[in-house]
Amino acid sequence: MQNDVARERLRELILDGTYPPGARLTELEAAAALEMSRTPVREALRALTADGLVRPTGRGVVVVALERDDLDDAYRVRAALEALTAETAAERQRDGRIAPADLRSLHEVNEATAEATARGRFAEAVALNRRFHRRVAELSGNMIALRTLDRLWDQIQVSTLRSLAPPSRPGHVSAQHEQLLAAITEARPEDAARIARAHVLDTRAATSGEA
């Protein structure tokens, strides 16, 4: 549907910083940028408002960044949800409910993330990192958690665009990914939850001075 296409394209432009926090966007400007009619763009902007990425202002919308306290809260909720999805994924692995091919795909994304990080391909590493965490959530089978995390990830990404820099501790990040992957693969739910929670909170601690 045109509405969905417009929403996804505008979302991508916000997430990649084309429209950074504080940028004002009118319905007419967005329609021209997307080369679409105003009706699907209008619906897309309403959806993005509901997602918390923009807020209405005058005749258009403004891209929203979370304030420090709200960003802290977002990370805490993300940590709790990622602990849940990691734990559930490990439980499903223990019960034989994850197909070998699906688990292998998680390993492949992890390897690609580590390689991109090690080689300094930062933009690629950021995208792959999110794909790794999303894949864990998918393997949990909890679609409510996945949808909530998608929204949180978007809000966090927009809110930290200005402070993004190559990770200062790439080895530490990769090690935590390896630990999480091992806990899921070896069906250790409690360890998976603990590692996932610590990883998210470590990420916030590493960026909190700049956010």
Number of helices: 9
Instruction: Provide the CATH architecture of the largest domain.
Output: Up-down Bundle
> Could you describe the largest sheet, including whether it forms a barrel?
3 strands, antiparallel
- Low-confidence parts lasting 5 or more residues at pLDDT below 50? none
Distance between the termini: 36 Å
Instruction: Kindly report the CATH topology of the largest domain.
Output: Four Helix Bundle (Hemerythrin (Met), subunit A)
- Bulk shape: elongated
| Overall number of domains | 2
| Strands ordered across the widest β-sheet | 1-3-2
Overall mean pLDDT score? 92
Hey, roughly how much beta strand do the residues contain?
A: 5-15%
GO molecular function: DNA binding; DNA-binding transcription factor activity
Protein name: DNA-binding transcriptional regulator, GntR family
Domain HTH gntR-type: 1-66
Pfam families: FCD, GntR
List descriptors.
single chain; 211 residues; mainly alpha; Arc Repressor Mutant, subunit A; 3-stranded antiparallel beta sheet; 5% strand; elongated; DNA binding; DNA-binding transcriptional regulator, GntR family; transcription; transcription regulation
Please give a structural write-up.
It comes from Nonomuraea pusilla. This is DNA-binding transcriptional regulator, GntR family. With 211 residues, the chain is mostly helical. It has two domains: 62 residues, Winged helix-like DNA-binding domain superfamily/Winged helix DNA-binding domain (Arc Repressor Mutant, subunit A, Orthogonal Bundle), CATH 1.10.10.10; 140 residues, GntR ligand-binding domain-like (Four Helix Bundle (Hemerythrin (Met), subunit A), Up-down Bundle), CATH 1.20.120.530. The chain is 72% helix and 5% strand. It has nine helices and three strands, in the order H-E-H-H-E-E-H-H-H-H-H-H. Strands 1-3-2 form a three-stranded antiparallel beta sheet. A hairpin with a 2-residue loop joins strand 2 and strand 3. The chain starts with a helix and ends with a helix. The model has no long low-confidence stretch (mean pLDDT 92).
